[in-house]
Amino acid sequence: MAAPRPPPARLSGVMVPAPIQDLEALRALTALFKEQRNRETAPRTIFQRVLDILKKASRAVELACREPAQVDHLAASLQLITECFRCLRNACIECSVNQNSIRNLDTIGVAVDLILLFRELRVEQESLLTAFRCGLQFLGNIASRNEASQRVVWMHAFPELFLSCLNHPDKKIVAYSSMILFTSLSSERMKELEENLNIAIDVVEAHRKQPESEWPFLIITDHFLKSPELVKAMYAKMSNQERVALLDLTIAKIAGEEPLTKDDVPVFLSHAELVAGAFVDQCRAVLNLTAEQPTDDEEALATIRLLDVLCEMTANTDLLGYLQVFPGLLERVIDLLRLIHAAGSDSTSIFSPCASVKAEGDITNVAEGFKSHLIRLIGNLCYKNKENQDKVNELDGIPLILDSCGIDDSNPFLTQWVVYAIRNLTEDNSRNQDLIAKMEEQGLADPSLLKKMGFEVEKRGDKLILKSASDTPQL
User: Which is nearest to 21 in space by CA: 57, 53, 59?
Assistant: First the structure.
């Protein structure tokens, strides 16, 4: 005697065929689950039936992994798998009851195992990619706002699924796996990433290749940048291109519309230590940029970005004090400015001033703005800091800065940053004021240049006084 057939199920008055075993029945169920009321009234038994189909269809994928010739016969199974994932994905949307029911059937483990099999097949069939994407979407939806599901997804997916998917050639697979990682991450799980740095680095690489993708960006800004230990470990292992991508996001976070919070400040002080230390150690790499090969040295490009980050960090009052006393930073910046200034006298150097205006959008000089940013950083480091003001004087930095004030199309706003630096160097510092006044008397500082910068020298008896000009600085 045959076993009795299970009774049909109802979703808000709509009959669902039993058993659910063909593609059309699955598609009907997927369509029903687009409605919130149908998701909320779904019988639990339906998810067991969908899981049974998923398991049965997955056997064909297992066979294809063992026998590659079977890949050509996967079409029907892949259609069923895709529709199972779509059905489960839709059922989980904003419905914790369904998330819990589906999770308790161990569907997550089945889905992760199947996705790993997809990656093992190493084929680019569109039907396989569609099933792959839908499987990842299901995992993302079941984990959304559900800590219990997030734990189970993490248990099954970490680290293999992320190692397999974050560097996949398909952009959607990278995006969906990033969504799962973002949804599942917590402060405790971040520690596991420190032991699996390749995953974290893959996220940065995904952002570098797809800057428009939301999920890698959010993982880095909302998770990675809150963990100085992880950032430090990642930075040591990353390529210079990946370092530039990470540093760009660090700049975006510091210079964003929302100021750093009280919780952010200690973390970014740790980032400041990493960035300043790396710059002090590596800054001379920028001298490798030559006119003959201006874009070949990726280490030099990373060094340029370190300088950009330091400029933004020293513009933040919470970070400035730490960097003003960072060992060797101010000395190294002045030393590098002197070397760059000397290199600029060679017309073939990438650091030589450009007398002609570039066409709009023509950004051929990878060192553009580097000199301006060095002077900007010196100005920031000397802001209301007499020790640093005096140090620049002792290192003969003031004549160097004044001599840098000229036309240079490769350094926009150069004059403005020189003005800013000189003002910070002379504020409440009579020694530095006297030096500039004497330079003007000796013909070492151009009076018209000083006036353009908003200063003039006045003789009072035997003493020269540097004071603010009555005219507004010509910035």
Answer: 53
Q: Which residues of 360-387 are buried (b: 16+ CB within 10 A; e: fewer)?
A: eeeeebbbbbbbbbbbbbbbbbbbebee
Which of 59-73, 278-292, 453-467 shows the highest mean pLDDT?
A: 59-73
458, exposed or middle or buried, with CB in 10 Å at 0-12, 13-18, 19+?
A: exposed
475 burial type by CB count under 10 A (0-12 exposed, 13-18 middle, 19+ buried) = exposed
Sign of CA dihedral 274, 280, 285, 291: positive
CA distance 391 to 395: 6
The DSSP-derived string for 69-97 is GGGGG-HHHHHHHHHHHHHHHHHTTT-HH
Q: Which two tokens stand for residue 344?
A: 């600029």
Range 167-172 average pLDDT: 94
Strands 463-468 and 455-460: antiparallel
Q: Could you give the C-alpha distances from 180 to 86, 277, 416, 458, in angstroms and in order?
A: 16, 34, 47, 68
Instruction: Express each pLDDT in 288-302 by its tens digit.
Output: 775 455 555 788 889
Task: Using alpha carbons, select from 90, 3, 5 the residue that is nearest to residue 47.
Answer: 90
SS3 35: coil
* d(C-alpha 229, C-alpha 232), whole Å: 5
d(CA 154, CA 111): 13
> What are the tens digits of pLDDT across the range 185-227?
998 999 999 999 999 999 999 999 999 999 999 999 999 999 9
DSSP of 39-73, one letter per residue?
Answer: HHT--HHHHHHHHHHHHHHHHHHHHHHH-GGGGGG
